[in-house]
Amino acid sequence: MTEDCNIKFDLIVTIVNKGFAEEVVEAAKKAGAEGGTIIDGRGTGIHENAKLFGIPIEPEKEIVLTLIDSTKTGKVLEAVSNAVELNKPGKGIAFVLEVEKTVGICHMLNKGNNIV
């Protein structure tokens, strides 16, 4: 059986070049997040057509998942964007998904440990 949380959550998904995920997490923490999950990936977008000596390079990416209380989403997203310059081409992207349900976090919130 699952508990219902009264807190609404968002998931901020940030995709950056390898080596920048820690900057994303630190900026998010300073803006009110408790942390994030870093996943390795590779890019296939328009900025990923680099070649070295005529050999295509598959750029390595890092994906940062940040579950956040929706009241903090705007502040955290802005901090992350500024920290890794997401407004510049080729730096990465971030987007927000509304989270319908959470499991495994509500019991901590109910005990007063504001894990977000």
Automatic annotation (TrEMBL):
<dbReference type="InterPro" id="IPR015867">
    <property type="entry name" value="N-reg_PII/ATP_PRibTrfase_C"/>
</dbReference>
<dbReference type="Pfam" id="PF00543">
    <property type="entry name" value="P-II"/>
</dbReference>
<dbReference type="InterPro" id="IPR002187">
    <property type="entry name" value="N-reg_PII"/>
</dbReference>
<dbReference type="GO" id="GO:0006808">
    <property type="term" value="P:regulation of nitrogen utilization"/>
</dbReference>
<dbReference type="InterPro" id="IPR011322">
    <property type="entry name" value="N-reg_PII-like_a/b"/>
</dbReference>
<dbReference type="GO" id="GO:0030234">
    <property type="term" value="F:enzyme regulator activity"/>
</dbReference>
<protein>
    <submittedName>
        <fullName>Nitrogen regulatory protein P-II family</fullName>
    </submittedName>
</protein>
